[in-house]
Amino acid sequence: MPNPFRNLPSVNQLLEIEPLKKMVKTVNHNVVADGVRTFLDDLRTQVSNAAEDIAIPTASEIATRVADWLEKSEQPALRPVINGTGILLHTGLGRAPLCSDAINAVSDIASGYASVELDLASGSRGQRIRAVESILCELTGAEAAAVVNNNAAATMLALAALASGKEVVVSRGQMIEIGGSYRLPDVMKCSGCELREVGTTNKTHPADFENAIGENTGALLKVHPSNFEVVGFTRSVSLEEMVHIGSQHNIPVIDDVGSGALVDFSRFGLSDEPVVSQSVKQGADVVLFSGDKLVGGPQCGIIVGKKKHVQRILRNPLMRAMRVGKMTLAALNATLLCYRNQDLDGNQIPLLRMLSIPSENLKLRAGRIAEQIEHLSGFKSAISEPCQSMLGGGSVPTQQIDSWCVSMETESMSVDALANQLRNGEPAVIGRIHNDRLVLDLRTIHPQYDILLVELLSKVVG
Questions:
Q1: At 107, is the secondary structure helix, strand, or coil?
Q2: How many helices (H) and strands (E) does the chain have?
Q3: By CB neighbour count within 10 A (0-12 exposed, 13-18 middle, 19+ buried), where does 295 fall?
Q4: In sequence order, what are the beta bridge partners of 258?
Q5: Quick check: 254 and 162 in contact, CB under 8 A?
Q6: What is the rounded CA–CA span in Å between residue 101 and residue 83?
Q7: What phi and psi values does residue 333 have, to the nearest 5 degrees?
Q8: Neighbouring C-alpha atoms within 13 Å toward the C-beta of 215
Q9: Which of 292, 298, 402, 301 is nearest to 355 (CA)?
Q10: Residue pair 302/280 in contact by the 8 Å Cβ criterion
Q11: What would be the CATH architecture of the domain defined by 81-90+355-461?
């Protein structure tokens, strides 16, 4: 019986065949050689395990396949994406894009050394929180601030610092679970606190908190539900009521507002998102919120509140494990400066800019793009139509934003195949599938990408 592997080319032979020969000049030689060996080993295994004879590819075919495989494997997993989903704070796509000032600030700080923990005025060692503390206090009205790597960390750290080994009282209707299996009871346990649930799913009264307070009570916790709503026959305890109860018993009140708006989002037609400065004004001892959601900054968790409580948080050993680096501080400070400069119409902060775009503008863009796509070879139809965008990031889950999209269908390619091709393109394009058509929502697509989108679709379908 003839040996099916006898005519397989050697590794060295394949490395002398284009396009592998060209790849060796741009990619590490050992990486390419190892890739060839892996491909040949897999091919031998397939042939050995096959029930029938398998045609052995030629040396040129093997070289081409290995080169294609290596080229794909060399692409970084983290790549730029054009977001056509209509979800402004898409967690899977990195939530809020940074403003140009923040990007420039990160570049300046990342390219060299920075005064992270050095007081330049005195020459002595300082605290890194000073880079953003004053502006956070200015924007929120708080006495002090701290920044950690995300809001989950802020919650755990605040609980550990203020109530470890004690009970934390929280309404049963606020026992949340958000994306990534983040559950409040689990965070409570990790922080060393004991959970004390009060009330029912739909109704909690001030008396429920009063009756739960005892010698071992460490804190009262209010949590903004963020990604769900309880409607109908409901009653919740307001922050003012909780602050009154906490002050009577000398127990700190922690308000976890989640997404963390620095401005009232009702100006964009969205309601019920708590504003951080209002929580501070209403007397919360500590307020926790995200930096990469409604603030529109880098991923971080922000803690503001009364100085005595924030200082306890800063002194907790967990603070060092959760602190942020110079690039996050630089991006956050630049983003906060936009708010201080009253740029509230979205001229600089991308999230606010996307929310501010009139639907009529999106309609005109959608019409132009649809007309160009419909003239491309391989497309059966492309139409512009109204649609609904979502804020995302666990914010206002039941509220939608009027938008316009381009909905398309090809002549021969399935909608799943089209979505896959765009998702694996350069740059990647992510849309949504509705009624067997690919939909690209223009509210989350910057106008600078309109021409590029048409070019990518022409290439993919053509």
A1: helix
A2: 18, 16
A3: buried
A4: 289
A5: yes
A6: 21
A7: -60, -45
A8: 0
A9: 402
A10: no
A11: Alpha-Beta Complex (3.90)
Which tokens in the block code for residue 47?
Answer: 């042939």
How far CA 338 is from CA of 135, 273, 309, 389, 402, in Å, comes to: 11, 20, 28, 25, 26
SS3 337: helix
> Taking the CB of residue 321, how many other CB atoms lie within 10 A of it?
11
The Cα 458–Cα 105 span in angstroms is: 37
Burial profile 443-458: b = 16 or more Cβ within 10 angstroms, e = fewer:
bbbeeebbeebbebbb
Question: What tokens were used for 165?
Answer: 């080994």
Stated as kind and residue range, the H or E segment containing 403 is strand 401-410
Kind and range of the H or E element at 233?
none
**Half-sphere exposure of residue 266, counting CA atoms within 13 Å on the CB side?**
5
- What is the bridge-based pairing of β-strands 194-198 and 167-171? parallel
In the numeric block, which tokens belong to residue 442?
């223009």
The full set of domain ranges for the chain reads 11-74, 81-90+355-461, 100-340
Looking at residue 203, the DSSP 8-state letter turns out to be B
Q: Specify the residue for token string 């190892």.
A: 34
Residues 221, 194 contacting (CB under 8 angstroms) = no
CATH topology of domain 100-340: Aspartate Aminotransferase; domain 2 (3.40.640)
What count of Cα atoms within 13 Å lies in the side-chain half-sphere of residue 110? 12
The stretches of 141-286 forming alpha helices (DSSP H) are 151-163, 184-190, 206-212, 239-249, 276-281
Beta-carbon contacts of residue 218 (< 8 Å; ≥ 6 apart): 162, 163, 164, 165, 166, 167, 168, 193, 251, 252
Handedness of CA 273, 274, 275, 278 (dihedral sign): positive
Q: What is the pLDDT along the chain (462 residues), one digit of tens a residue?
A: 456 666 688 899 999 998 898 888 888 889 899 989 998 888 888 878 876 767 788 889 989 988 888 888 878 888 999 999 999 999 999 999 999 999 999 999 999 999 999 989 899 998 899 999 999 999 999 999 999 999 999 999 999 999 999 999 999 888 776 665 678 888 888 899 999 999 887 889 999 999 999 999 999 999 987 666 666 677 888 999 999 999 999 999 999 998 889 999 998 888 888 999 999 999 999 999 999 999 999 999 999 999 999 999 999 999 999 999 999 999 999 999 999 987 555 578 999 999 999 999 999 999 999 999 999 999 999 999 999 999 987 777 778 999 999 999 999 999 999 999 999 998 999 999 999 999 999 999 999 999 999 999 999 987
Domains 81-90+355-461 and 100-340 share a fold: no
CB 174 within 8 A of CB 223: yes
